[in-house]
Amino acid sequence: MSETIVTFVVASTLLGIAPGPDNIFVLTQSALYGKRSGILITLGLCSGLVVHTAAVALGVAALIQTSVIAFTVLKVLGALYLLVLAWQAFRAPVGRLEAPGSNLRSAGALYRRGIIMNITNPKVSIFFLAFLPQFVAPEHGHITAQIFLLGGIFIFVSLVVFCLVAVLAGALGNRLHQSTKTQLYLNRIAGAVFAGLALKLATASVN
Q: Fewer CB under 10 Å: which end of the chain, C or N?
């Protein structure tokens, strides 16, 4: 189990670093308005992840335990989705990041913005459905509890990574979001991570 947790933490960290709507929003808001804005948005985003974790834990666990067919269908769909993400990451254009059209400054507004952005993004739920079950094994205990544990770890890792992004972006300002070379490297890292997860999921089994 400890080896699985280590692997999960590494994968979660790489995914947190990889460019996506959430961390790019945190980066740009921090660069434009300071690290406080980025940290508040991060807290909101991570709060939204609690909802996605609960949805996966209360639904996928039953499918894994009772239906091999359902598990296989979920596995195939998840792997295909991850491959799509890998393709999009490798093909993602680079260039100057545009500042989001949001001028929210109050703590409550920024926190709510993060929650709404996360909860209303259906791709987060689909990604969690593809990602979390890979690291679940019946021999390690109750499946629902494992998914909640993994979700909690993912949220904690995301919180740490996004807060670091907020602090660095707030300190470095425009030099971060003007670096196309950095964007290119991050896109390639994201593509490799998603492709690796797709392969792992495609070869996974119920037992």
A: C
- Nearest-angstrom CA–CA distance, 180 and 147: 36
Please tell me the distance from the alpha carbon of residue 63 to that of residue 12, in angstroms, as a whole number.
24
DSSP element (H, E) containing 159: helix 143-172
pLDDT < 70 positions in the chain? 1, 21, 32, 60-67, 70, 74, 92-105, 121-123, 173-180, 182-183, 186-187, 190, 204-207
pLDDT digits (tens, 9 = 90+) for 133-143: 888 877 777 88
Q: Give me the amino acid identity at 161.
A: V
Sign of CA dihedral 63, 87, 19, 2: positive
The answer to whether the predicted template modeling score (pTM) of the entire model surpasses 0.85 is no
Distance CA 150, CA 37 (A): 27
Return the amino acid letter for 87.
W
- CA distance to 25, 45, 195, 202, per residue, from 55 (Å): 24, 16, 24, 22
Measured distance between the N- and C-terminal CA atoms of the chain, rounded to whole angstroms? 15
Q: Are 116 and 41 in contact (CB under 8 A)?
A: no
Three-state DSSP state, 189:
helix
